[in-house]
Design brief:
With about 350 residues, the chain is α/β, with parallel strands linked by helices. Helices cover about 45% and strands about 15% of the residues.
Length: about 350
């Protein structure tokens, strides 16, 4: 296949590109410079530097012509801060580009499209009683992104949305998203225990995400949302690994906090956001309900897509070690971008 990836030099896009190439496919990308120093970007991938969001219709059509599979591995997540209304930012970076790109993909005869989404969309559909779209602009935007993507699916073009959870692994030279976790855990540094919600989360490694992307691009038919998970860990299990990676602490004491306490902290965050003119994509008070549950996803879909076993603990170690180095200032890294 001829494959076009938007976001092909990023953490997930570059991994997918390498797997595509290893399976005999041709890959090209349009990406923002600079490339992170030392990153294993596939030499065989054709790279055009630029902002795909600014492409003219003619240039976008030229990029899509002759393409068999298109991957949207770009956009922004809930950790990127925006002024109100934050939904408009998600529309700009996550929804409108998918609408425009899939319109052109359909025109150019692309057979399969893969969009990287969020496992919050999986949760919103699995638990409609939680009314997550009304409470959290980011979750509403991810549901809307899926609906936009799926309107293009038919017998001639399959469309897959990968509902991605926590992802671990690193790209040399690029700042991991987990620096924010290091910052959060610093408040417990002088305490005898770490206080954290009692829930848990689905997760997988960067390599497994790459395998899921390629598997979807090779096989999806019609409209299909894939709930993505290869491992399901409680926060307690996860943080034990984090502390071993971060400080060499073998058995950090983790104390479960009740939801009311988490919500009280969320009220302080709401005030902080308001003072800074920021609207959070995930309401910090409502987040208590999500963090306090086991947001576990069955692994059936990832098995169907061909994801193979990996060392999740090693991937967490790598992510935390690089995040700690970034936090300490011992490594200067490129920021993660919503390209």
């Amino acid at each position: 296949m001829n494959v076009l990836i938007f976001g092909g030099t990023g953490l997930l896009g570059s991994m997918a590109a390498q797997i595509f190439i290893d399976r005999g496919h041709s890959v090209k990308t349009i990406a923002l410079p600079p490339l992170p120093e030392g990153a294993p970007i596939p030499e065989e991938m054709e790279i055009s530097f630029g902002n795909f969001l600014e492409l003219s219709d003619e240039d976008l059509e030229k990029a899509m012509t002759g393409v068999d599979a298109f991957v949207y591995a770009a956009g922004v997540d809930e950790r990127v801060e925006f002024p109100a209304p934050v939904y408009e930012a998600y529309k700009k970076y996550n929804i409108d580009p998918v609408d425009r790109c899939l319109t052109m993909a359909k025109k150019c005869g692309v057979k399969r499209c893969v969009v990287l989404g969020s496992y919050f969309a999986w949760l919103a559909k699995e638990r409609p009683d939680m009314d997550l779209c009304a409470k959290h602009p980011y979750i509403r935007s991810r549901i809307d992104q899926e609906e936009v993507a799926f309107k293009y699916a038919d017998d001639d073009m399959g469309v897959a949305v990968l509902e991605l959870p926590y992802i671990f692994g690193t790209q040399p030279g690029r700042k991991p998203v987990w620096v924010i976790l290091i910052e959060q855990l610093q408040r417990f540094e002088k305490m005898p225990a770490t206080f954290y919600p009692a829930g848990g989360t689905a997760m997988l490694t960067v390599r497994q995400v790459g395998e899921a992307i390629v598997g979807a691009a090779e096989q999806v038919e019609g409209a299909r949302a894939y709930g993505i998970s290869c491992y399901n860990l409680t926060w307690r299990q996860f943080l034990k690994i984090v502390y071993r990676a971060m400080d060499g602490i073998e058995d950090r004491k983790i104390v479960d906090i009740p939801k009311w306490m988490f919500k009280s902290f969320g009220l302080l965050l709401r005030k902080d956001y308001k003072d800074r003119g920021i609207e959070s994509g995930i309401d910090p008070v409502g987040l208590a309900d999500i963090m306090g549950m086991n947001l576990f996803i069955p692994t059936d879909d990832t098995k169907e897509l061909g994801c193979t076993p990996d060392d999740i603990e090693a991937a967490i170690f790598d992510s935390i070690a690089l995040s700690k180095a970034s936090f300490d200032g011992t490594q200067q890294l490129l920021e993660m971008k919503g390209e």
